[in-house]
Amino acid sequence: MRDTDLYTRILGIEAPWHVSIVEVDMADREIVVQVGRKAGTKLCCPICGKESPGYDSRRRRWRHLDTCQYKTILEANVPRVECPEHGVVTTSVPWAEPNAGFTAMFEALVIDWLKEASTSAVSRLMGLSWNAIDGIMQRAVKRGLARRGQICTRRLGIDETAFKKRHDYVTIVSDQSGGMVLHVGSDRKKAGLKEWYESLPESCLQAIESVSMDMWPAFINATLESVPGAQEKIAFDKFHVAKYLGEAVDKVRRQEHKVLMAEGREDLKSSKYDWLYNQANMPPEKRRNFRALRESALKTAPGPSRNWLCRCGVTSAKPGRARPGSGGYRGPCVVVSNR
Ligand SMILES: [Zn+2]
Hints:
alpha/beta, Nucleotidyltransferase, domain 5, 4 domains, binds zinc ion, Transposase, Transposase_Znf
């Protein structure tokens, strides 16, 4: 079998394309596969698919899977057409996506490796820049989103996560029913989340029954302005409710302890963690000793209501309504998350 026939077959190249020349560069350990196009075959606009007259062609190169230990490059003159509707556009080739410098098979291999190893490892072992890997990932995400289509979920989850040592945040929107990430925003601002909401059809916005989130004002405001009836649908994650309430109780305890100490009283001394403790998990003896303090007239004493609020998220058959007492947000009544 001739080398051109061999490469035509192993690359899966079909008419009107064919492998015309295979060159081996022993010094650079590189194989260049020249792919030609049969003259006179019809050309189509890649946007509308209509047959269009040829305009010119551009020389293009794509990195393909290695041949043994040799880096393998595909080269071809890709025709451009002059579409009456879309102007001069480059036609598509069957082995790569538009504007990609790699064949589809090479990109699939990179994606497989990225599932197993870090970006820096893939970059080092495959001789790719971070920008090249990012481009491959972006195209894979675009293909995946196109395949997935529109998803309407009843239960949304919105969270933020930090990267680059907590200097930057991204917004992650997920379908809590299916556990699928629906959107990743490049920041945690209101405008970004609103833009995503606006990309949804009205029927999907109407279908949303609950939106679970922390108390980040940008998420709250974007949701209030975008989701019909959001005031009854926002569910604060109980972890964040407990965290803010715990901080509020501790702040009151510290202030009151200072005042009491000035009067020579040590009622609240060494009680910091008693107030923050989940009563259900407190050892019986400790709970008995703490009861007197909890039921006293101290300002810190409303603490038990905090425990009720935090517990309701896990003990109620249905999420109950509650108003968080602190935490920077004093908006409408909310439902404490049941997750
Ligand atoms: Zn066109």
